[in-house]
Design brief:
Structural class of chain B: mainly alpha
Order of helices and strands of chain A: HEHEHHHEHEHHEEHHHHH
Distance between the termini of chain A: 122 Å
Helix content of chain A: 40-55%
Largest sheet of chain B: none
Radius of gyration of chain B: 23 Å
Radius of gyration of chain A: 49 Å
Number of helices of chain B: 15
Strand content of chain B: under 5%
Largest sheet of chain A: 4 strands, antiparallel
Strand order of the largest sheet of chain A: 2-3-1-4
Oligomer: heterodimer
Chain lengths: 433, 457
């Protein structure tokens, strides 16, 4: 290959110049066909961009349409000299840019506002400024890809074979030489006259350019076959995904990356073969008491004195304003929803349940009614701890001290119901009149 | 990098009887010598070792978890993010040279633009790896992209981190398109000069049958202009968006409106530092002194001086605003930055980025390759420290003293950083070996002989 190249370089101009009458196979064209090969056009070679420019003007003025020049770099002024009209490329790119912008708006609006609305700190669901960066980037991305692809498409690239490739000297078109080709397909083309026209432009050489009958017209079959296989193969994963999305399976999901989804440990309520009873959760050993869970004071923790309900508050609970306030607060939190703010059994939950009248509701008791007034404090404490009828146990939620405080507050509510003026301290009686 | 001429096939005057042919030969011989000099193999070997270190350290991190790095709360954005910002910044000089200077008709850019664009792409590749590995679950980055998934959720487009995905992704794509499109005519030159079938097919495939038709050049130039016009706002947006990652948060030292211009100036500054660091040895070694001349070095040094002062202004302004804001958190953060436990990071930054480039006020030093190379290296060091100063050290001490921490990278951190240079230099050396290092067609287009007026006979 190397000798061919040097051949082309040395012989280019001179060979063609010396044999203008035997142009069929001039200038080192070794591959060119015999005389029967149809003519593609005529080619002229120039040493300087200036020479090419003046030649181009002549060819343009002669009225040719199907012709072109080939240069190693964009020659300044060639567009005018050849009469090339401005390309539509910028308009295509503008269209692509607007498409990118619209895509940016729609993508962000549809995903973040419509399909999966993101509520962020009470901001509006759709606000332009935060979405500008992605719009801008997509606009640029679409435009840039289109600029390249449309440039190639308008230029008819890729074009992997061309009659010019058969001329070895033409390799210098990408190095330091300038060429002009007039195609035989031009209506004004007449071989002899066009040849004379080109000779009149002071080229270093003029040559006949035959059609390419050497390069196979089609791609090699194995290559085509291979490409088709690759393309089809590439579709397989997508086909599998598409199928998986519309079908169901009883098998567990494929877990390519296990993350921490599967851990070698025994979870609660599961089996563990290590132990005789096969339970993963181990029961406490008999007689075990957790720290702070001894609760060995029957009065404080269960409201009992011997077998009787305690009638007095335990010594640990001070009968004071602060206990009363605490009881009021806890009553408001836990009891008032059903029993009402003053314990008459008219809390919102109760009212609603009665309104629905579904027949399964046991109304919340009025905590101030007679039989409850007479109950010992220990029994009230026990009711709060363990619940009664459909009232759930509150022992696990409220500490014993707070349960006693609630009992104290309930006692206050009971006393205030049906209280007389005598129950009010003398100093405050005036304010009630 | 001083290799004796007889050992280096790249030296000596390029052959050719025209200015155009000499340019072709000068550039093409770099890729055409059958075996490059030993120095290339040594450099490539070192780069490959570093590359192995890179993938090794990342593999280790994936195997053990990101705890293998020094990353530790409160510094969740540690070395990977520092390296990400560092590398993505490097890329900016390439786009600036290829796009912005093109729009401004700065013809000197043609000698260095290919080179700088390649640097951009390799730097962005290094950068793109870091956010992906920083999350520690390399199988989940698809969460960043708006693709339908089994969770039926979409990315949050109001997040600057999501903007980053689009900005850096677009930037990488457009840079590659720009680089590739600029290379098509030069690949055609390589194809036409190739002496083996493999080279002819490889270059020919990517040259897409370019033959230099003027009708094609017309559309090509228009497309190139459009890409330059698109890349210009893009490059400004990329580092602005990167700075939003920090600026839209509320951490003192991050929550600053000056960040976008400050980051862009720093990126251009750091990128030019990298360009001269690479260009000075490369023009020497690959015999490109007639194409990348001292004039080019001087212009780049002027840009380094100018952007260095922009960066210096930003540093000063940050301190001023910290004081002027009267916010105790801001004031403390900047006091801590300059006089806290890692004071040396800030002062390394300030000295490398602001003090060293000042030597370029002297023309003699601007045209001195050694001074250029040394300052270029210092600028790179300084810009890396700048990112380290901004990102982890702002996180170590924020509002709550109870959650203060301290961060210094550990061994694996350093191996990952060092290794990323392996990726960069491996790609860069391969580029020098196999692709046109200089935009031949563009350099030919600005030769005096290219501008001859039509000859009238």
């Amino acid at each position: 290959m190397s000798d061919k190249q040097t051949d082309a370089k040395k012989s280019t101009g001179e060979a063609a110049k010396t044999e203008p009458d035997a142009p069929k196979d001039g200038a080192g064209t070794s591959k060119g066909g015999a005389g029967g090969t149809p003519l593609h056009g005529l080619i002229a070679e120039y040493e300087t961009p200036g020479a090419l420019l003046s030649a181009s003007k002549k060819v343009r003025d002669a009225g040719f349409k199907n012709w072109d020049t080939y240069t190693p770099f964009p020659v300044h002024g060639i567009d005018g000299a050849m009469g090339i009209k401005p390309t539509v490329l910028p308009w295509i790119v503008l269209g692509a840019g607007l498409t990118g912008l619209a895509t940016g708006i729609l993508l962000q609006w549809w995903t973040n506002t419509y399909d999966y609305p993101y509520l962020t700190s009470g901001k509006p669901m759709w606000s332009l400024p935060a979405h500008v960066p992605v719009m801008f980037e997509l606009m640029v991305l679409f435009s840039a890809i289109t600029a390249l692809v449309a440039m190639l498409a308008l230029n008819g690239l890729p074009e992997y074979s061309h009659p010019l490739d058969l001329k070895k000297y033409f390799a210098r078109a990408t190095d330091d030489r300038f060429f002009l080709v007039i195609q035989a397909s031009d209506p004004r083309f007449a071989e002899d006259e066009t040849w004379k026209l080109l000779e009149g432009t002071h080229p270093t050489a003029v040559d006949r350019l035959e059609e390419d009958r050497v390069t196979p017209a089609n791609m090699p079959r194995p290559l085509v076959f291979g490409l088709v296989l690759v393309v089809l193969g590439a579709l397989v994963p997508f086909a599998l995904i598409a199928r998986a999305r519309v079908s169901t399976s009883e098998k567990p999901r494929i877990h390519i990356i296990p993350d921490m989804d599967f851990q070698e440990k025994f979870k609660s309520q599961r089996m563990n073969p290590v132990f005789e009873d096969k339970r993963a959760m181990r029961p406490e050993l008999e007689g075990t008491v957790a720290v702070g869970a001894l609760e060995d004071d029957d009065h404080l923790y269960r409201g009992k004195l011997g077998d009787e309900w305690a009638r007095e508050f335990p010594a640990q609970i001070p009968i004071s304003d602060s206990t009363m306030k605490r009881g009021q607060q806890e009553f408001g939190v836990f009891c008032a929803p059903c029993h009402g703010q003053v314990g008459h059994g008219d809390g919102m939950v109760n009212e609603r349940a009665v309104e629905l009248a579904q027949g399964t509701w046991v109304p919340a008791s009025d905590v101030t009614q007679e039989y409850l007034r007479k109950q010992p404090v220990g029994e009230l404490f026990n009711t709060i701890t363990h619940g009664i009828r459909n009232m759930p146990p509150y022992g696990p939620q409220i500490s014993p001290e707070d349960r006693w405080a609630i009992v104290l507050y309930v006692r206050a509510l009971q006393r205030s119901r049906g209280a007389t003026i005598q129950d009010v301290p003398e100093a405050d009686r005036g304010s009630l009149k | 990098m001083t290799v004796a001429t007889d050992l280096n096939p790249y030296q000596g005057r390029p052959s050719g009887d025209t200015a155009f042919a000499r340019i072709t030969n000068n550039v093409a011989r770099i890729a055409e010598v059958p075996t490059p000099p030993k120095a290339w193999y040594i450099a490539f070997g070192i780069a490959l070792i570093l590359l192995a270190v890179f993938f090794g350290s990342i593999g280790w991190v994936f195997w053990t978890g990101i705890g293998a790095w020094g990353t530790q709360i409160p510094v969740a954005w540690a070395m990977p993010i520092v390296n990400f910002v560092f590398w993505v910044g490097i890329g900016h000089a390439g786009t600036l040279i290829s796009a912005i200077l093109y729009l401004f008709r700065q013809h000197w850019r043609t000698s260095i633009n290919r080179f700088a664009e390649a640097m951009t792409i390799f730097a962005v590749m290094c950068a793109a790896i870091f956010p992906g590995i920083h999350i520690g679950r390399p199988w989940l980055p698809y969460w960043m992209f708006p693709i339908p998934n089994q969770m039926e959720v979409w990315p949050q487009f109001r997040s600057p981190l999501e903007w980053d995905v689009f900005a850096v992704g677009t930037y990488a794509t457009v840079s590659i398109l720009f680089w590739y499109m600029g290379m098509i005519p030069d690949l055609a030159t390589f194809r036409d000069r190739s002496t083996s079938k493999i080279r002819r097919i490889a270059y020919g495939l990517f040259a897409m049958g370019w033959r230099g038709s003027s009708r094609q050049w017309h559309r090509y130039e228009r497309a190139y202009l459009l890409l330059a016009a698109l890349a210009t706002p893009l490059v400004l947006s990329v580092h602005s968006v990167v700075s939003f990652d920090m600026a839209t948060s509320q951490i003192p030292g991050w929550h600053t409106t000056i960040f976008p211009p400050y980051f862009v100036a720093g990126a251009v500054f750091g990128g030019f530092g990298m360009v001269v660091t690479l260009a000075v040895p490369a023009r020497q070694f690959f015999g490109l002194k007639h194409i990348i001349t001292l004039d080019h070095i001087e212009v780049m040094n002027k840009i380094i001086l100018a952007t260095g002062m922009l960066v210096g202004y930003s540093y000063a302004m940050e301190f001023f605003i910290a004081w002027y804001s009267a916010s105790p958190w801001e004031i403390f953060t900047f006091y801590n930055r300059a006089f806290g436990p890692v004071w040396w990071i800030a002062w390394t930054t300030y000295i490398c980025n602001v003090v060293f480039p000042q030597i370029f006020w002297w023309k003699k030093l601007r045209r001195n390759v050694w001074a250029t190379f040394v300052v270029g290296v210092f600028v790179n060091v300084g810009m890396w420290f700048e990112r380290f100063m901004i990102i982890p050290s702002s996180l170590t001490r924020d509002f709550l003293p109870s959650s203060w921490g301290y961060f210094l990278p550990n061994k694996i951190d350093y191996l990952t950083l060092g290794g990323s240079f392996g990726l960069f230099f491996t790609l860069f050396l391969l580029f020098c070996r196999y692709l046109p290092m200089v935009a031949m067609a563009e350099v030919k287009g600005i030769q005096p002989s290219a501008h001859a007026h039509p000859e009238e006979h």
